[in-house]
Amino acid sequence: MTHVRFRFSSAVTTLLTFTAIILPAPAKALQLYSHAGRTSSNAVANHADSLPTGASASGGSVSSDSAPAAPTKPLYSPSGEKGSGLSGKVFARFVLPEDWISLASLPGTALAAASVQGGSGGSPETVFTMRSFGQKVRAWLNGYRLGYWPQEKGRLRSEAYKNPDGFIEVTPENEDTRVSEHFRLRDFVSHDQKEIWPKYVVLREPLLDKLELVIEDLNDHGINAEGMRIRSGFRTPAHNFAVRGEGSARDSRHQFGDAADVFIDQVGNGKMSDLNGDGRVNFADVKMILDAVERVESRYPELVGGTGLYAYSGRSGPFAHIDVRGTRARWVRGVYKGRSRRVARTRKASTKSSSSAKTAVAKTASATRGRVSETPE
User: Fold this and answer.
1) Residues 6+ apart with CB under 8 A from 222
2) Tens of pLDDT along 48-93?
3) Which residues contact 365 (CB under 8 A, 6 or more apart)?
4) Claim to verify: residue 233 and residue 367 sit in the same structural domain
5) What is the per-residue pLDDT for 297?
6) Residues 184 and 253 in one domain
7) For residue 8, how far is the Cα from the chain centroid?
8) pTM (2 decimals)?
9) Is 9 contained in some domain?
């Protein structure tokens, strides 16, 4: 009997040793993800040079004997000094749990579990693990009301209106996480259910990239755009339905995480600033954002999307809608009659301000004639 126990013990020891030798490297990275803890709130920080892109962080080549060939379609490819994307200023990556398997299997990957810090300076990229769309139960996810997407109601207009892949969980601990150079996660949270936690957001990295490129373009053209603010980012379908009377489209792009309404606040008063320096804040100022979008889309057609100009004088003043839907769209609200596409009748202008606004409207009408949408998105 003693001899049999000895042989069994030896077999177990041999099996454990063999398993430890052949255990794939990605498992260690996945353990970091699964034990990230509450402080990281489904986010794991990792430096830009921790994932292979064909070159080391210092710019030298990666030796062929230290790393195998990169996959044909890498999940992550930092292009800037601090961040990723065409702008080099995107600091976030949104992945589903199954994407982590591919992410962790990239040669040379070293993911470090760390608390997410939203401080100033060069923040490390942050990988957010999304909740999959399948976890949504009817209109709800974990006590947070989302509502129903168009596809769930049988209104799939095109591939661009398919259900989102998943949701980013937002908590008091991670809402200040920087997702790009100028924006934080909380900037894109739907405006309803203010007291409910956790919240859930749909957000696409190309939108962050395009917003950063628009800011950069305006700065390059002598317009200080560092104060770009998000007036409305992601909207739950439930909230989007509730604000339909305020001009929201039924199938608004805000529901898909690739749209944001923005204005530029240069003085910190929460309102659109006088961008052209004529002493007034009007339609001419918001049109300058459209001009920047046109230049960005011309340089980067992969970021093409919709741009809507709103002349409303609400809490933030005029603003612009920017999205990355994949097709070009332009529209104006607050100036045109939706059905006729003609300039709305107004009283005769007796001030220079109204004259300037009319000039800006005429130029915009010329630039967008034939492409003005009757419904904002």
Assistant:
1) none
2) 322 223 333 333 333 333 333 333 333 333 444 479 999 999 999 9
3) 332, 336, 343, 372
4) yes
5) 98
6) no
7) 56
8) 0.70
9) no
Task: Identify the three-state secondary structure at position 307.
Answer: strand
Q: Does the residue 1 lie in any domain?
A: no
Report phi then psi at 370, rounded to 5: 90, -5
DSSP characters over 58-99? TSPBPPTTTS-PPPSS-S----SSSSBTTTT-B-EEEE-HHH
Compute CA distances 34 → 37, 115, 128, 326, whole Å: 8, 14, 12, 34
Q: Report pLDDT digits (tens) over 20-34.
A: 444 443 333 332 222
CA–CA gap between residue 37 and residue 64 (Å, rounded): 36
Cα 152 to Cα 366: distance, rounded to the nearest angstrom: 39
In whole angstroms, what is the distance from residue 174 CA to residue 43 CA?
8
* Per-residue tokens: 309: 């100009």
Asked if residues 112 and 33 have their Cβ atoms less than 8 Å apart, the reply is no
Helix/strand/coil (H, E, C) string of 244-277?
HHHCCCCCCHHHHCCEEEEEECCCCCCCCCCCCC
**Residue 232 has which token pair?**
């409305």
pLDDT at 242: 93
Per-residue model confidence as pLDDT tens digits over 85-129? 999 999 999 999 888 776 666 554 444 333 333 333 344 589 999
Question: Do 293 and 303 fall into the same domain?
Answer: yes
Residues 283, 365 within the same domain: yes
62: in domain = no
Residue 20 belongs to some domain of the structure = no
Tokens in use for 38?
Answer: 């509450």
Residue 294 DSSP SS3: helix
Total domain count for the chain? 2
Q: What is the mean pLDDT of each run of 10 residues along the chain (377 residues)?
A: 48 52 37 30 37 31 34 37 88 89 56 36 73 97 98 94 97 97 98 97 98 98 98 97 83 97 96 96 95 98 97 85 98 64 42 49 47 49
In order of 39, 164, 236, 250, 306, the CA distances from 138 in angstroms are: 29, 15, 13, 19, 30
Residue type (1 letter), 32: L
